[in-house]
Amino acid sequence: MTAKSIQQFLAAAKAAVQRGLKSTSGKILLVTGNESADLDSFSSSVVFAYLTDLHAQYTRCKLSGYDNIIPILNIPREEVSLRPELHFVLARLRIPESDIICKDEFLSSIDRSKTDKVDVVLLDHNNLLSDLGDLFGKNVVAILDHHADEGLNNSAEPRIIVPVESCTSLVVNYFADYFRISPEELSVSNEKKDVARLALAPILVDTANLKSKETQEDKDAVAMLMKIISSGILGASDGQESYYVELMTAKRSIDSFGLRDILRKDYKEWLEDNGVRAGISSSVKSLAWTVKKFGWNEFKKGIESWATERKLDAFVFMDSFQDPKEGYRRDLLIAVCSEKGDARVRKFVDAAQIEFELEPFSDEDGLGIQNNDEEGLWCFKQHNLKASRKQVAPLIRQFMQE
């Protein structure tokens, strides 16, 4: 019997949600990435859910006995439009956007009084936050993640937290029995090639096509995936490069976005036990590009408005981009958003300047970008290019927790 395709799996999961899961008598396995809902969170959760559904073939996955396995995008439906790289991948794989299940759609389909019916797998994070955490925080049964280990959900099995560049690499290596093909296999099904293309996308993006900060696990995953994709095709390396270029072109297509959309597109937030709240927005466009588009004063007003909307005490704006002259670069903006956050943020600024090799921003283009110690707003060029949000977030949280 031919296994269902990943397109068929997603369509069936969406149909189950649309019918409503309230009347389901059996257990539900919810598979979710983190709240930034980037390509890595999406791909890792969908691929993990799909291969768990095929668990009979891949004995390493011990999760079984579920009536429904539901991968979700951990954002409301209205925010899907802010992810052009996701739209590109969905179109490439012939997956209708309507078959993707968003957080609000899943929550509307379940009986919230029967949370014990839902087990949770965390991909690309190891602490279930916000409304999902309130409902199912004690129901985490498996974790694959590459962020700082928060020491929670220690009974999860598997519980794999390894600092690779892409969480999807962990999924590929975990299900290596599926992705590893032998030299004797002369052809690979189109269904398996589609799974490989979905898994490959975030790994290429997160490692800059294995040219920046990849780990051995990332390299191993790409090698397995490209062997599947290039089966029977000449010029495999060319295909990898062109796929990466297309992905990055799509990801950078945010010229039509308003400032609020840019700030919320790739955003993560943490509320500490002491009530201090910090948020980090990441952008694929430079700080100079953003300020040039909106103006320095409007940019500052936009940050203040976002901080008010999210009730933040501290805010960080990060970017990563290719400069025509200097190559790959990063900037870092840090802002105090409340009296409660003031002293904590200033300590973070002092530590971050050393840890991330920060240089005060020089407004070479005359855009009006200014550091203001009195206001609590600082802009830096970041010379430690390997420090992404995975490194910045634990440090700012350390000071927010004081």
UniProtKB/TrEMBL annotation:
Signal peptide stretch: none
Alphabetical list of InterPro entries matching this protein: DDH_dom (IPR001667), DHH_sf (IPR038763), DHHA2 (IPR004097), DHHA2_dom_sf (IPR038222)
Q: Tell me which SUPFAM superfamilies the record gives.
A: DHH phosphoesterases
The alphabetical list of record keywords is: Hydrolase, Manganese, Metal-binding
Q: Which GO terms describe its cellular component?
A: cytoplasm
GO MF annotation terms: exopolyphosphatase activity; metal ion binding
Question: What does the record give as cofactor?
Answer: Mn(2+)
The segment(s) forming the DHHA2 domain are 244-400
Q: Look up keyword Ribonucleoprotein and say if it applies.
A: no
Q: Does the keyword Hydrolase apply?
A: yes
| Name of the molecule in the record | DHHA2 domain-containing protein
Starting at the broadest rank, the lineage of the source organism is:
Eukaryota, Fungi, Dikarya, Ascomycota, Saccharomycotina
